[in-house]
C-alpha cells in the first residue's frame, strides 16, 4: 500500500504538472495519466463528469470503459448520490456494481465538488481485492482537491442526451 510520503510526492507532482494551466479538460487528462503512471497495481484511472442525472466518461487511462453511469448506480453513481467517497475492497460484493472491466476487483471513487455542486468523480480501479486503504483514500482526496484548486471549473453542464 502507498504511504503518506508517496501521496505527498504524488500530490506535489500534480501541483507542478498543473502549474500555469487552468483548463479543466487538459488538467483532468494529465491527472489521469499521472495516476496511471505512478500508482502500482491499478488497471484504470480517470474521471466521469456529471451531466444531469448521469455520469459520462471523461479523460482516463486504461481499457475502454462504460460511457454512461446513472447517478445512484454502481460505485461511481453511489459516490455522487451520497456525496461521499467510496472505498470498496471487493467490487463484486458491492450492491449494484457495474462491471466495466470484469478484471477490476477493488475501487476508490472521490466525488468532485466545487462551488456547492458535484462536477463528477475521480475513479481508480485495481485488479486486486483490497488494493486500496485509508491512506489511498486520503491521498486521492487531496489529489482531487489540488486538481480542483488548480483548474478553471467548467460551467454547469445542462442535461442532454
Automatic annotation (TrEMBL):
Coiled coil: none annotated. Signal peptide: none annotated. This is GAF domain-containing protein. It holds the Pfam family GAF. SUPFAM superfamilies: GAF domain-like. Residues 43-145 form the GAF domain. Belongs to the free Met sulfoxide reductase family. PROSITE patterns: UPF0067 (PS01320).
Amino acid at each position: 500500500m502507498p504511504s503518506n510520503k508517496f501521496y505527498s510526492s504524488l500530490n506535489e507532482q500534480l501541483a507542478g504538472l498543473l502549474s500555469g494551466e487552468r483548463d479543466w479538460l487538459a488538467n483532468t487528462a494529465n491527472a489521469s495519466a499521472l495516476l496511471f503512471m505512478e500508482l502500482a497495481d491499478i488497471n484504470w484511472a480517470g474521471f466521469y463528469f456529471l451531466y444531469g442525472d448521469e455520469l459520462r466518461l471523461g479523460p482516463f487511462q486504461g481499457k475502454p470503459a462504460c460511457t454512461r453511469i446513472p447517478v445512484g448506480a454502481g460505485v461511481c453513481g453511489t459516490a455522487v448520490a451520497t456525496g461521499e467517497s467510496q472505498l470498496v475492497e471487493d467490487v463484486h460484493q458491492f450492491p449494484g456494481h457495474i462491471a466495466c472491466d470484469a478484471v477490476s476487483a477493488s475501487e476508490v471513487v472521490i466525488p468532485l465538488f466545487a462551488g456547492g455542486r458535484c462536477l463528477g468523480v475521480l475513479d481508480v480501479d485495481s485488479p486486486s481485492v483490497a488494493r486500496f486503504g485509508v491512506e489511498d483514500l486520503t491521498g486521492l482526496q487531496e489529489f482531487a482537491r489540488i486538481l480542483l484548486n488548480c483548474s478553471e471549473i467548467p460551467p454547469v453542464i445542462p442535461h442532454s442526451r
